[in-house]
Amino acid sequence: MFKRLREDITCVFDRDPAARNVMEILFSYPGVHALLFHRLNHRLWHWKLKWLARWISSFSRWFTGVEIHPAAKIGRRFFIDHGIGVVIGETAEIGDDCTLYHGVTLGGTSWRKGKRHPTLADDVVVGAGAKILGPITIESGARIGSNAVVLKDVCAGSTVVGVPGRIINKKPAEKKETGQAAHRKAIADKLGFDAYGMHDEMPDPIANAINAMLDHIHLMDKRLEDMCAAIKGLGAEIGDMQLSDLGPCEISSAVSSTPSSIEDACDMPQDNTEANKTDSDK
């Protein structure tokens, strides 16, 4: 028991820079209090003292602002930061080294008995206000963004954002741009514009619209070059003209450009249109 308590305290130091000492954690962290209450309630539940377990869990909810059903299965080094508004359902399962922030719901979508709440594997982080609903599985290392609503399984190491949740993928490092992306970059460099301050894994509708314009300008530029070459082939002289410098045109975004995600996401097509709608709505 004391070994588990030591692990709980250590993981708070690891994940909350505001934690200063052991006494502060033991007496002022509602997430730690809720976890200690749950361990007692979970044991009482398996001892068939279910009424007592539910009564203590109700007191724990009033005392900590965290509601955890006594039957929920929770692994080691579990940390609830801030705590208020967290709800963990009866058939929910949480692995080791998981972190939940305030306002998270691990809820069900059915009134039928049996497995109806989500399963979180090891090392999952769920942001503030996120809702994970139904008997789905969030695999190891996944990250759920704040206020996301997740209704489907999430593969290992991926990051989910938006309503409904969409998986965003990390672009492989050192990958040389080819095809359309290379054309966009070439015309952007020629115009003095950088639309690549916003990465593809965090789509921005404004940046995407400008990318579409860059594609169109590239085609026009290529056609104009072909026309000039044809006219020169007929003997006419056309002076080379340099495009004027447009100055800095970079678009900034409130979304982080370096999300934590996997090298290879699930082998499922991503709906960029829906993702763009989601990001613009947030």
Word description of this protein:
Among the domains are: 2-120, serine acetyltransferase, domain 1 (Orthogonal Bundle); 175-239, no CATH class. It is an alpha/beta fold and 282 residues long. The two termini are 43 Å apart. A 6-stranded mixed sheet has the order 3-6-9-12-14-15. Strands 1-4-7-10-13 form a 5-stranded parallel sheet. A 4-stranded parallel sheet has the order 2-5-8-11, with no helix packed on it. Helix 3 (30-46) packs antiparallel against helix 4 (50-64) and helix 5 packs across helix 6. 37% of the residues lie in helices and 12% in strands. A hairpin with a 4-residue loop joins strand 14 and strand 15. It is built from 7 helices and 15 strands.
Keywords, please?
282 residues; alpha/beta; serine acetyltransferase, domain 1; 5-stranded parallel sheet; 7 helices; 12% strand; elongated
| Low-pLDDT residue spans | 170-174, 191-202, 248-265, 268-282
Architecture of the domain at 2-120, CATH level 2? Orthogonal Bundle
Gross morphology: elongated
Which oligomerization state do the chains in this entry correspond to?
single chain
Percent strand: 5-15%
Number of strands: 15
Radius of gyration over all CA atoms, rounded = 26 Å
CATH topology of the domain at 2-120: serine acetyltransferase, domain 1
Which CATH first-tier class of the domain at 2-120 would you pick? Mainly Alpha
Total number of helices: 7
Distance between the termini: 43 Å
Neighbour order of strands in the largest sheet: 3-6-9-12-14-15
Would you tell me the overall average pLDDT? 76
Secondary structure: helix percent = 25-40%
Order of helices and strands: HHHHEEEEEEEEEEEEEEEHHH
Query: Main β-sheet, in a few words?
Result: 6 strands, mixed
Tell me the structural class.
alpha/beta
